[in-house]
Amino acid sequence: MKKIKVKAYAKINLSLDVLGKRKDGYHEISTVMQSIDLADILEFEKSEIVKVFCSGHRVPEGEDNLIVKVINFLKEKYQIEEGVLVRLDKKIPLAAGLAGGSADAAATIVALDKLWNLNMSADEKKEIALKVGADVPFCLEGGTKLAKGIGEIFEDLNVPHMNLLLVKPDIEIFTKKIYDKWDRLNFKSHHATCSVVQAIQEGNIYKIAENIKNDLELVTSRECEVINQIKEELLKKGALGCAMSGSGPTVYGIFDDLQKLIKAYKDLEGIYSFVFFSKTIDKGLELYE
């Protein structure tokens, strides 16, 4: 096998409770994470060198690029001599709260396991994923999950199909900065996750939409007032409920009326830098060999 292609799906948070800072610097959270059909496409090909080519977007270089971080980690761990060429067709916006970098890292773990015949177990893949980033273990599996700890302790959920509109203003948000401000401002959690889980278990899209909430909005919206503006616009245009994903700044709205969603998409696509009609899906990665 010389070449592998992977579709790496983005995620949103249907809830995000920040429960406190741990001694290792990470934060204890309780969140419902949900895969959506927005995806990066990655192609991996055996090579003598390590090189990542990216179309259309500025991406970090060196170890700041999670793809490179995974490649270097696996080369060292398994004493791999050869390199790999990675072609990344970037569709998930950078620093958007959608786990684009984490999805790419998860895709790299799975692709190199096959390309280099590493035969890693599921537990080994998850262990490596957690060393790379808190969202990477979820991106390996995807679907709908209640996640605790730093986001690595999972319980599977079965969410009803939902149509979404994603809106990202032309700003980038960096997760560490937002968590640092959360600590300094001494906010308290909304504890929305329990209500969202209950609504999912009931299969009630209206109750889900009513209860979605993200603690980090309290921080990010103070810096970026446009987040509240987007939420107001989505609600006026027929969203059942809306919330920010991750540390932001992407906001998503849940719609039960497809015509209202399409009209909202057309109204907002010329105003904001990224507007995407999306839906919930049940996987994090898709391989094409």
UniProtKB/TrEMBL annotation:
Active site per UniProt: K11, D135
| Domain of life according to the entry | Bacteria
The record's Gene Ontology biological-process terms are:
isopentenyl diphosphate biosynthetic process, methylerythritol 4-phosphate pathway; terpenoid biosynthetic process
Q: What parts of the sequence cross the membrane?
A: none
Cited SUPFAM superfamilies: GHMP Kinase, C-terminal domain, Ribosomal protein S5 domain 2-like
Q: What is its EC number?
A: 2.7.1.148
Signal listed as a keyword: no
- Which residue intervals define the domain GHMP kinase C-terminal in the entry? 197-267
Broad class of enzyme this protein falls into: transferase
Pfam families with a match to the protein in the record: GHMP_kinases_C, GHMP_kinases_N
What UniProt keywords apply to this chain's record, in alphabetical order?
Answer: ATP-binding, Isoprene biosynthesis, Kinase, Nucleotide-binding, Transferase
Q: What does this protein do?
A: Catalyzes the phosphorylation of the position 2 hydroxy group of 4-diphosphocytidyl-2C-methyl-D-erythritol.
Provide the family line: Belongs to the GHMP kinase family. IspE subfamily.
Q: Which protein, by its recorded name, is this?
A: 4-diphosphocytidyl-2-C-methyl-D-erythritol kinase
**Lineage of the native species?**
Bacteria, Bacillati, Bacillota, Clostridia, Thermoanaerobacterales
